[in-house]
Amino acid sequence: MTRNAANWVKLEKNDDISGNIDSRKIKDFADSLGFSARAHHVLKKGAKLLEVKIQRNNLAHGNISFAKCGRDYSFEDLEKTKAQVVGYPRKILSNIQLYLNNEGYKR
Questions:
Q1: Is residue 31, in this structure, part of any structural domain at all?
Q2: What is the total count of domains within the chain?
Q3: 48-103 pLDDT, tens per residue?
Q4: Is residue 27 in a domain?
C-alpha cells in the first residue's frame, strides 16, 4: 500500500493558512512541516507579497482609492511585483512537490 503525505503529516488546528498570506507566513509554515521555503534570489524571498497584501487590504476596506494606491508605481514596478508575487508561490509549490516526491514527511 502506498502512503501519502496525509498519512504522515498532521496539521494542527492552529496551522492557519487561510486568508491573505505573506512570505513570513509561508516560511513559518514551511519550517513547521519541513519543506523548503528557498527560492531564487531574484524573487527576494517573496517580499512583495506583504506589500500587495497590505495594499489589497487597504483597497478592500476602503482606506485608499485605486488612484491613490497605484500612483506611486511605474509600469516596470508593477511588472517586477507581478513576477515576484507569481514566481515566489510557484517556487514554493515546486518545493512542496519535491518534498512530497522525496517523501520528506517521513523524516
A1: no
A2: 1
A3: 999 999 999 999 999 999 999 989 999 999 999 999 999 999 999 999 999 999 98
A4: no
